[in-house]
């Protein structure tokens, strides 16, 4: 009897894990679709540690993606980019 209960619990855990994995994949796909729709958004790599989250390669991309689309306009020159960026950051 105990063996049957253990198998049932394992199956429930596996099912829950699979559902969570599918939900995560769906969320990732929606994020990728949104990113593709806005070409100025950059893909942020997934990290496993807090140290990886703080790396320039990850933190910089997250900050860029958090800027308003008018500032992320890739056609702006460096001088034109600086003015709205400073306004956004300091006002």
Keywords for this entry:
91 residues; 2 domains
- What is the succession of H and E elements? HHHH
Please, how many helices?
A: 4
Mean pLDDT: 79
The computed structural class is mainly alpha
Low-pLDDT segments: none
Number of E-type strands: 0
What's the story with the biggest beta sheet? none
What percent strand? under 5%
N-end to C-end Cα span: 68 Å
Give the proportion of residues in helices.
over 70%
Number of domains: 2
Rg computed from alpha carbons, rounded to a whole number of angstroms = 21 Å
Specify the overall morphology.
Answer: elongated
Description:
This protein is mostly helical and 91 residues long. It has two domains: 1-37; 42-91, no CATH class. Helices cover 70% and strands 0% of the residues. The chain has helices at residues 2-37, 50-53, 56-66, 78-90. The longest helix has 36 residues, at 2-37. The termini are far apart. 0% of the residues are buried. The model has no long low-confidence stretch (mean pLDDT 79).
Write the layout of secondary structure elements.
Elements: H1 2-37, H2 50-53, H3 56-66, H4 78-90
Produce a short descriptive summary.
The protein is built from 4 helices and no strands.
